[in-house]
Specification:
Elements: E1 3-6, H1 13-24, E2 27-30, H2 31-40, H3 44-54, H4 61-72, E3 79-82, H5 88-100, E4 107-112, H6 115-128, H7 136-159, E5 163-167, H8 172-181
Helix pairs in contact: 1-8, 2-3, 6-7
The protein binds BIS(adenosine)-5'-pentaphosphate (AP5).
BIS(adenosine)-5'-pentaphosphate is lined by residues 7, 9-15, 31-32, 35, 52-53, 56-59, 61, 64, 83-84, 86, 90, 121, 124-125, 133, 142, 171-172, 175.
Length: 186
């Protein structure tokens, strides 16, 4: 099974992707996490990526694509793509890649959450973890970019009849149970 997870920053995509990957034995591919690993290597490329991420902007897609394609190509049981696509051109490119490689995208799960709750969760995470893009300014900018660029991707998959929408307001376990109800059982 191959899944894409969409939703605003703080909606819990990463949290649900971890649970789903364990449940279905799928490769969890988080573009944000792959980029953070590049940053941790402190190479000139990593430093450039860090500057962009710390402003809450999108990293050039060719950089992201290199990282995620390596992962997709080594996902024998299927994958969960978390954090990509981020705009329509990324969505179109992923479709093209899936077609070329005879990869079937089963479902796109959209975790729907209003900005105030998302901002609150991100603020909590900023206190608990040490993500350099977890600052109030970056949170607002990431949400602005999400509404401007990523939200059209939701309509794009809706038109393809691939989209399922999950209310991301309840607790983590309830959201996970509700997600499983919309997916084929193991
Ligand atoms: P990325 O790492 O993908 O961040 P994001 O999409 O902004 O999402 P987050 O990780 O902030 O939130 P999430 O929805 O995963 O929520 P989480 O589970 O952590 O991207 C980071 C950056 O990388 C981007 O800004 C961009 O620069 C770059 N990038 C990535 N992909 C790119 C691409 N394709 N193209 C270009 N650039 C790209 O949960 C958040 C918090 O809430 C956690 O503390 C969690 O414990 C808690 N929580 C989760 N669920 C619940 C719940 N139900 N109730 C209460 N708390 C909850």
């Amino acid at each position: 099974m191959n899944l894409i997870l969409l939703g605003p920053p703080g909606s819990g995509k990463g949290t649900q992707a971890k649970l789903l990957s364990q449940h279905f034995q799928l490769n969890h591919i988080s573009s944000g996490e792959l980029l953070r690993q590049e940053v941790a290597q402190n190479t000139p490329k990593g430093k450039l990526i860090a500057q962009i991420m710390n402003q809450g902007e999108l990293v050039p897609f060719d950089t992201v694509l290199d990282l995620i394609l390596k992962q997709i190509n080594t996902s024998p049981n299927g994958f969960i793509l978390d954090g990509t696509p981020r705009d329509l051109s990324q969505a179109e490119h992923m479709d093209w890649f899936f077609n070329q490689n005879h990869i079937h995208l089963d479902t796109v799960i959209y975790y729907q959450l209003d900005d105030p709750i998302a901002l609150n969760r991100l603020a909590n995470r900023a206190r608990e973890e040490n993500r350099s893009d977890d600052t109030p300014q970056t949170h607002r900018e990431r949400l602005r970019i999400y509404h401007q660029k990523t939200q059209p991707v939701i309509d794009y998959y809706q038109k393809q009849h691939k989209l399922v929408t999950i209310d991301a307001r309840p607790d983590i376990d309830t959201i996970f149970t509700n997600t499983l109800k919309l997916l084929p059982s193991k």
